[in-house]
Amino acid sequence: MLVINGTQTIAANHLVLTSFGALTQRLLGPRYDALDAALQARHLQFLWHPVLTSIFAVPAFAILMVAGALVVLVTERRKQLIGHSSRP
Q: What contacts 4, CB < 8 A, 6 or more positions away?
């Protein structure tokens, strides 16, 4: 996202930030439009309006940065304690 937004910013001569909704719409295509209808069919329309529309308005780099940080935290190895006995 840094490269894409950086290139667009240089070309437009002003700051351009791609929203997460625009990125999702590009990746999913017609399935993005069907997402709202699928949630309404399952009586989960409350997820679309307050929750997903708020998330889709956030810049994509912020969502990807948080997701990357969570992956790093979850996959980090536990540090072994040195000098402590492991016997009960």
A: 18
CA distances from 79 to 74, 83, 85 (A): 13, 13, 15
For the stretch 5-32, pLDDT in tens is 999 999 999 999 999 999 999 999 889 8
Cα Rg of the chain (Å, integer): 20
Residue found by looking up tokens 């999702």 in the block = 24
CA 49, CA 41: separation in Å to the nearest integer? 14
pTM above 0.85, yes or no: no
Beta carbons of 1 and 57 less than 8 angstroms apart: no
Reading the block at residue 7, the tokens are 């290139």
